[in-house]
Amino acid sequence: MPMSRADIESAIAEALPGAVVELTDLAGDDDHWAVRVEAPQFAGKNRVQQHKLVYAALGGRMGGELHALQVTTVVPT
Asked: Which residue of 1, 4, 35, 74 is surrounded by the most CB atoms within 10 Å?
């Protein structure tokens, strides 16, 4: 069963307090997502480190409950 929009949003928001999370269902199947995360925790980190924070927030669900995730990270201004 695919991971729901609400579960993805809450997992990221809980792991990255203050984050703004925007999800887009890329295929209309609740299984292929694009996420844009703007979080203060990204400050001073490179893109790879930022993406690792997002994947860590999902607790290993990538490749299982969550099939595909396109990640865009942004440092708040």
From this structure: 35
Give the pLDDT confidence of 50-70 residue by residue, as tens digits: 999 999 999 988 888 888 899
Domain 5-74: CATH architecture, name and number where available? 2-Layer Sandwich (3.30)
Could you write out the DSSP letters of every residue in 39-68? -GGGTT--HHHHHHHHHHHTTT-BTTTB-E
Closest C-alpha to 22, from 32, 34, 36? 36
Domain layout of the chain by residue ranges: 5-74
- For 50, phi then psi, to 5°, come to -65, -45
